Structures are given as C-alpha cells and as structure tokens.
Amino acid sequence: MIEIKQVSKHFHLSKGRHIKALDQVSLEIHPNEILGLVGESGSGKSTLGKVLAGLHPKTMGSIKYKDETLPDNYSAKDFLRLSKEIQMIFQDPYSSLNPRMTVGEIIGEGLSLRKVAKKTIQEKVHAWLLKVGLHPDHASRFPHEFSGGQRQRIGIARALIVEPKFVICDEPISALDVSVQAQVIQLLQKLKNDFGLTLLFIAHDLSMVRHISDRITVLYLGQIMEIGPADQVFFHAKHPYTQKLNSSNPLPDPKREREQPTIQVDNSEIPSPSEILRGCPFASRCPHVSQICKTERPELKNIDNNHQVACHHLDKIN
Amino acid sequence: MSKILEINNLHVEFDTYGGTVHAVRGLDLAVQKGETLAVVGESGCGKSVSFQALMGLLPMPPGRISSGSANFQGNDLLKLKESEMRPLRGSQIAMIFQDPMSSLNPTKKIGDQIAESLIIHKGMSKRDALKESLKLLELTRIGEAPKRLNQYPFEFSGGMLQRVMIAMAIACKPQLLIADEPTTALDVTIQDQILALLKDLQKEYEMSLILITHDLGVVARMADQVAVMYAGQIVENGSVDDIFYRSAHPYTLGLKQALPNSQEGKSAQLIPIDGSPPDLFSPPKACAYAARCPMARKVCLEKAPLIFEASSKHLSRCWLQHPQAPSHPELFCGERK
C-alpha cells in the first residue's frame, strides 16, 4: 500500500551543519495492517510520520502510495487531494485542536474545504461524534471543555471523517492516563476493523505497540534497526538495540521484574543526531561493538520471513 | 522495622473562583525505614499535591491544609513553622521532581546548585562543598564529572539533569527521598539507568523512598509497598505482591486490565475503565469510584466504604468484601470473612 524507498530528511542548522532526522529509510506498509513504529526521542519516528503526511518535504528518496509517487513538496492542491487518502492523528490533544473553533467546525473542516453541503457536514459530524463515543450536542462546544481522552476522540473523528485509507497515529496515547489509553486503543482498533484502515502507530510504549501492532519497526537515530512481526520483535529481538529497549521496558509484573537478571547497567547517553555518524548509529552504546561497526553501516538483512535486522554481528550475538 | 513517616487523615483543599476543590480527602499512609513506597494514581488524584503539602511547597493560598498530621521523627511536619521546616527540607527529607529542565536554575552552574544545600545545611565552605559536589556527581555516574560542575543546565540532556537532581537530593544524606514521577519525561533506556541508580543509592544510604508514579511497570520494578490513590483517597494499600496478584479494590483491578499483557502469542483485549474521575468540587459522599465500578452495588452509592482488611497489611476501601456491608448475600462477589 505504501512503499518508502531510501527516504532521508535533513534539517539544516546554522553554518552548513545539519541533522539527519531520517537516513535512508526503506519500508513497506501493507494494506489493512497496523505497523508499529518505536524508538526513543530523536529517533525520527515523528519525522517519518510527518514526511508521510506531506507535512515535511523530504530531502531524498521516494514514497509510493498505491501506484502514485507522492510529490516531494506538497502544493495546496496536493494536500486537498491526498488528505482524503492519508490522515494524521496528533500526539498532543491540547495543542492540536484550534481553541477558537467549535468541535463541530474542527471535525467538519475537512469536509467544508471540499465544498460539501452544510447539511451533510452537520449530519456526518453528528454521526462521527457518536462513533467516537461522544454526544452530538458536543459539536457546539469548544475544545477546552473536554478532557484529554475526549479531545483525542475529537482528533480521531477529525481525521477519519474524510474517510482516509491510511492513518498515521503519532503517539496518540502518550499524553493520556492508563485507563483512558485503553479506551482510545479500543476505539482505534474498532474503527480500523470497521473501515478497513491501514495504520502507522507511532509510540514509545513498547508493550502498547506490541499489543496493537501486526508488525513493529524499531528506529534509532533516523535508521531502521529491526523490523518484523510484533511478537518476534518483542520476545525474540535480534538487534542489540531492540534487546536493550525490551529489557529496559518495565513490565507490570513484580515477579517477572524480580526474576530478571540484573545486567550491567551502562550509563551511555543517546548521541545527538547532529553528530555525523559513520557506521552503525548504535555503535557508541552497543555491548557487542567491534571495528567494523564504527566504519561500515550495516544493511537490513532478512533473517526470517518478514523479519529484518541491521547488525554486523547477528551470528555472534544470537 | 520502624516507621519513618506517618501521615494521618490529611485533607488538602484549594479555594478557587468556582468553589473549593477537595484535592486530598483523608490520606493515611506510613513509610517504613529503608523501604520503597510507591504511590500510584491517575492525573488529578492528589498524589503530587499530598507530598507538596507535606513538604510545605504548596502555595497557600489558594491551597489549604484543612486537617491532618504527618509525623516525621517526632515532628508534625504540618504544624512546623517555615523556619522550623527549613532545616529538615533538603536535608532530612529531599525531593526529586518530574521535570528536571524546569526544576533547576538555568542561570547557575550545576556545581553551585549542588553545593548550595551543603553550604546551607552542613555549613561547609564553598570549596569543600564543591569538592563534595564532584563526589556526588560521580556517584550518580555522570560522565566527565569535573567538567560538568562548571556547566549550565542547558548543556545537559534530560537524563543527565535528572542525575543532577538526584545528586542535589542526596547531598545531605536524607532519610526520606520523595521522587515525584522521576522518570516520566525520560526515554526507557534512560529510565532504566535512573531507576537502577535510585535503587543503589537507596541501599547505600538506607533511605526510605516514596515513589510517586502512574506507571505500573515502574511500580513493579521498584516498590516494596504500594498505595493506590483515587479521587484524593487511598483506595488500596499493601505489599507489591498483594496489589498485583491479590488486588482487593476494583479500581486496582481496572488499572491492571487496562494494560496490555506481556505473554507471547496471547493478546487479550484491553478493558478500559469507563467514565471519568469524579468532580472534586463536590466529591461523592459515598464511594468515589462507584460511578465507574463494574461491581458497584446499592450500598456503594449510599454509604462511604469502610476499610476492609484483606490481611493485616493489605487494606482496601471497598464494600465488596467488607463484613459490615448490608447483608444482601447476592451483593457480594468476594469471600466474606
């Protein structure tokens, strides 16, 4: 459904320096799947989402949606056409809704831009408010009257009312409380099934990504480290970075936490993405590092059906 | 084991234009020497406010401590004057905050900020205090510590700033450390490092640790005792195993069911808790959780629940298993005592 080929996104800093937020990322997203995208801050996961939605022009590479190659720089016309296919749900339910528009205007804006009749818009807005678990009366209220979870529902209705096929969810639950997270996840799963959506689910909560996703992609400093079926990546990670992420992730199970072997904690920091990296981006923190890791960038290798890892020392580690 | 801190019937209120917010409504809590108590709850449940009140960090007004006592080594913290609180705060009891970026002074060098409490509380000279600061920074495993002393907060990453906060907090070897969401702003791998550091320092200094968090994973990793808070009250209190494996309160159960499980191949549906927490302008007279509770009975809406002792150290504020609940046998799901 979506084919991302060698996509890079560089942000320019002063004096010719730049940050490689995305560095030659290649990825396919299949129809009707949920692809999870995890990584720490600065890994480029939000950038990838925004490049896919056309909010950031890409520096290099190509993105194909169905059979169409997407433009590097979106014009207003491109946005109007493609936002009917590709939509985005944003992380912060507080800053992503215009405080001066009513909820009805926010949700209906995508339709009114397409010159849909007012009456139809109103009906659809009401229907969508119900679908996301709110009340049609809420249409005349303003965003500040709602809680975080309710706002995220508004954000979901806003994205889905134009009936897109592909939805990018950029950390849709990280600003929410546990009990509300579950509400939003359940809603997303239901809507995905009802409308046959394809989702890119960006988050840093590994357990939740594993719960909702079919496949998981692990990103580190703008490069893909590992990609594979959710359970494979979560339980049988092959890349040392994924293994580190998994062992850092605290599980809500005291017995398992006690049984976990205490491995030597390293106190390395995530390098700044503005540093120019040769070789493997994880080399500075990797326990298995060797000379080749510092000079040569590892390629994504197939190790199994759909399971790919970028590491020089796969045989040695596993 | 002896109690280092005992809070009884703490009430905190806020006066606002819209009326009085009853943020904390009768908090009872005890922390033993050397143990870790995790206080869990969702945003707005009063977990941070309780401990800010305890430390005298609550702006008053609008805040108000309307009743309660907090016994720390023979002193009632809530009755102390500001001048009496000062020698305790930062020295005997220290606190770490969620957002290290905004909790440090951006215009002062890191070394000076750590040295400050040593100069004030221990009467050290600036030179000695800076030397000690270096040791403390090294203890928190920051790389290139001598260089770091002369840097400013903006030159540090979030994880490093949190290490600086920890160095400041343990400078005077406190007996009680209150950590308010210390890792919420950090990435998992950095969170892992900070939690391990806290654990090690706690052992070394024999500190008691109060860990305020909403992350049940962090609780499972760190806590000995757990207190679950809801709408300004503790609804369940017990050992970490009691809370996770023998949950007695429907809210605790609800929180657990809302989390994804971590067993391979199986992915049970998440069960969200419907509804939202009660309005604390006028909190319900009876059980605060009743409106969202799947097991609520008539009595839950009429009478405030009494404390049920599931075992001697495992308490739950719920009618469900309570022997004194009105006797309609069909109302009960659990075993009756």
List keywords for this structure.
heterodimer; A: 318 residues; alpha/beta; Rossmann fold; eight-stranded mixed β-sheet; four-stranded antiparallel β-sheet; globular; B: 337 residues; 2 domains; 12 helices; 12 strands; disordered C terminus
Protein architecture, described:
The complex is a heterodimer of chains A (318) and B (337). Chain A is of the alpha/beta class. Chain A has a domain at 2-85 and 164-251: Rossmann fold. Chain A has helices at 45-52, 76-82, 103-112, 118-131, 148-160, 178-195, 206-212, 230-235, 240-248, 254-259, 291-295, 314-317; strands spanning 2-12, 18-29, 34-38, 60-65, 68-69, 86-89, 166-170, 198-202, 215-220, 223-229, 300-304, 307-310. An 8-stranded mixed sheet of chain A has the order 6-7-8-3-9-10-12-11, sandwiched between helices. Chain A has a 4-stranded antiparallel sheet with strand order 2-1-4-5, with helices on one face. In chain A, strand 9 and strand 10 (223-229) form a beta hairpin. In chain A, helix 4 packs across helix 5 and helix 5 packs parallel to helix 6 (178-195). Chain B is α/β, with parallel strands linked by helices and 337 residues long. Chain B is built from 12 helices and 12 strands. Chain B has helices at 47-54, 82-85, 100-103, 110-122, 126-139, 145-149, 158-170, 188-205, 216-222, 240-245, 250-257, 298-302; strands spanning 3-16, 19-32, 36-40, 63-72, 75-76, 93-96, 176-180, 208-213, 225-230, 233-239, 307-311, 314-317. In chain B, the strands form 2 sheets. In chain B, strands 6-7-8-3-9-10-12-11 form an 8-stranded mixed sheet, with helices on both faces. A 4-stranded antiparallel sheet of chain B has the order 2-1-4-5, with helices on one face. In chain B, strand 1 (3-16) and strand 2 (19-32) form a beta hairpin. Residues 329-337 of chain B have low confidence and may be disordered. The interface between A and B is large, with 40 and 49 residues.
